[in-house]
Write the C-alpha coordinates for this entry.
Amino acid sequence: MGGFTEAVQERVRAARAALAAALEADDAYQVAVAQDELDDAVRIARAHGIDDDPGAEVGAGEGTGADGGPVTSASGT
Protein backbone atom coordinates (compact mmCIF):
# COMPACT_ATOMS: atom_id res chain seq x y z
CA MET A 1 0.00 0.00 0.00
CA GLY A 2 1.39 3.38 -0.96
CA GLY A 3 2.01 6.31 1.36
CA PHE A 4 -0.80 8.37 -0.15
CA THR A 5 -3.29 5.52 0.24
CA GLU A 6 -2.27 5.00 3.86
CA ALA A 7 -2.50 8.73 4.58
CA VAL A 8 -5.99 8.97 3.09
CA GLN A 9 -7.19 5.90 4.98
CA GLU A 10 -5.74 7.29 8.20
CA ARG A 11 -7.53 10.59 7.57
CA VAL A 12 -10.81 8.69 7.13
CA ARG A 13 -10.19 6.70 10.33
CA ALA A 14 -9.33 9.84 12.31
CA ALA A 15 -12.38 11.66 10.97
CA ARG A 16 -14.63 8.74 11.93
CA ALA A 17 -13.13 8.68 15.42
CA ALA A 18 -13.65 12.44 15.78
CA LEU A 19 -17.26 12.07 14.66
CA ALA A 20 -17.87 9.25 17.12
CA ALA A 21 -16.37 11.33 19.94
CA ALA A 22 -18.46 14.37 19.03
CA LEU A 23 -21.61 12.25 18.90
CA GLU A 24 -20.75 10.71 22.26
CA ALA A 25 -20.20 14.19 23.74
CA ASP A 26 -23.49 15.36 22.20
CA ASP A 27 -21.68 18.45 20.86
CA ALA A 28 -23.64 19.67 17.83
CA TYR A 29 -20.89 22.02 16.64
CA GLN A 30 -18.17 19.35 16.84
CA VAL A 31 -20.49 16.87 15.12
CA ALA A 32 -20.90 19.31 12.21
CA VAL A 33 -17.14 19.94 11.99
CA ALA A 34 -16.30 16.23 12.23
CA GLN A 35 -18.96 15.29 9.68
CA ASP A 36 -17.54 17.87 7.28
CA GLU A 37 -14.04 16.44 7.70
CA LEU A 38 -15.30 12.89 7.21
CA ASP A 39 -17.25 13.86 4.10
CA ASP A 40 -14.13 15.49 2.64
CA ALA A 41 -11.86 12.56 3.53
CA VAL A 42 -14.30 10.03 2.03
CA ARG A 43 -14.70 12.16 -1.11
CA ILE A 44 -10.94 12.21 -1.61
CA ALA A 45 -10.65 8.47 -0.99
CA ARG A 46 -13.39 7.65 -3.47
CA ALA A 47 -12.01 10.05 -6.07
CA HIS A 48 -8.74 8.10 -5.98
CA GLY A 49 -10.26 4.63 -5.81
CA ILE A 50 -9.17 4.10 -2.21
CA ASP A 51 -11.19 1.91 0.16
CA ASP A 52 -12.87 4.43 2.46
CA ASP A 53 -14.09 1.77 4.90
CA PRO A 54 -10.87 -0.01 5.97
CA GLY A 55 -12.19 -1.79 9.04
CA ALA A 56 -15.01 0.69 9.75
CA GLU A 57 -13.68 1.84 13.11
CA VAL A 58 -16.59 4.14 13.86
CA GLY A 59 -18.07 1.90 16.53
CA ALA A 60 -21.58 0.74 17.39
CA GLY A 61 -23.31 1.55 14.13
CA GLU A 62 -22.13 5.14 13.70
CA GLY A 63 -20.97 6.46 10.35
CA THR A 64 -22.27 8.12 7.24
CA GLY A 65 -25.37 7.22 5.31
CA ALA A 66 -25.81 7.07 1.56
CA ASP A 67 -26.51 10.80 1.54
CA GLY A 68 -23.32 11.51 3.50
CA GLY A 69 -25.27 12.41 6.63
CA PRO A 70 -24.52 10.93 10.03
CA VAL A 71 -26.02 7.58 10.93
CA THR A 72 -26.10 6.42 14.53
CA SER A 73 -27.13 3.20 16.16
CA ALA A 74 -30.75 2.64 17.09
CA SER A 75 -29.88 2.88 20.78
CA GLY A 76 -28.60 6.42 20.23
CA THR A 77 -25.13 5.69 21.54
Notes: The longest helix spans residues 3-25. The chain has two helices and two strands. Residues 42 and 52 are 6 Å apart (CA to CA). Confidence is low (pLDDT under 50) at residues 57-62, 72-77.
